Amino acid sequence: MCARTGSGTQKKIPHLDIRRERIEHFLPQAAPDPGSSLLVSSLPFKSLPAAQARLLSSTYIRFVQNGGAVIQFSYGLAPPFALNDTDDLQWQRVSRVWRNLPPACVWRLQAKKKDALSPA
Q1: How big is the CA angle at 60 (ends 58 and 61), to the nearest 5 degrees?
Q2: No. of H helices and E strands in the chain?
Q3: What is each CA distance from 99 to 38, 88, 92, 104, 106, in whole angstroms?
Q4: Under DSSP, is residue 11 helix (H, G, I), strand (E, B) or coil?
Q5: Residue 41: phi, psi to the nearest 5?
Q6: Which residues contact 6 (CB under 8 A, 6 or more apart)?
Q7: How far apart are the C-alpha atoms of 63 and 83, rounded to whole Å?
Q8: The pLDDT value given to residue 1
Q9: Beta-carbon neighbour count of residue 76 at 10 Å?
Q10: Are 89 and 81 in contact (CB under 8 A)?
Q11: pLDDT at position 34, please?
């Protein structure tokens, strides 16, 4: 990884924990601080080998299920990876980047919103 990644941000916000390591090594041990742990990613899920994409997506899912949040920048207009109904999570498109070639989206991985009329 690039050694300069986040260096300016780290100086501006000293309490910010910026990691420069492989995500699959860090996230399984990470215990997110609910409401304040945010993972920002641009991993190319659609072009990764299937086994690696499954490993990383399951790691992201666990991170969100444990109270963290994920923001993902991805090429194309479809969500970065599919979710199972049992995950109880959903992708929310935050924005589209039409000037990018190919077009891209910024996505938020979050817990499914509970319908006010459905049983808890």
Answers
A1: 60
A2: 3, 4
A3: 26, 33, 20, 9, 13
A4: helix
A5: -135, 150
A6: 16, 18, 20
A7: 14
A8: 35
A9: 11
A10: no
A11: 65
CA distance 71 to 80: 11
What's the CA gap between 112 and 99, in Å, rounded? 30
Token pair in block for residue 2: 């690039």
CB atoms within 10 A of CB 107: 21
How many Cβ atoms from other residues are within 10 Å of residue 64's Cβ? Answer: 20
pLDDT band at residue 4 using 50, 70 and 90 as cut-offs: very low
For 80, the token pair is 């970065």
Q: Furthest-apart CA pair in the chain: how many Å? A: 50
Give residue 44's Cα distance to chain centre.
11
* Two tokens, residue 115: 């319908």
Query: Higher confidence at residue 31 or residue 110?
Result: 110
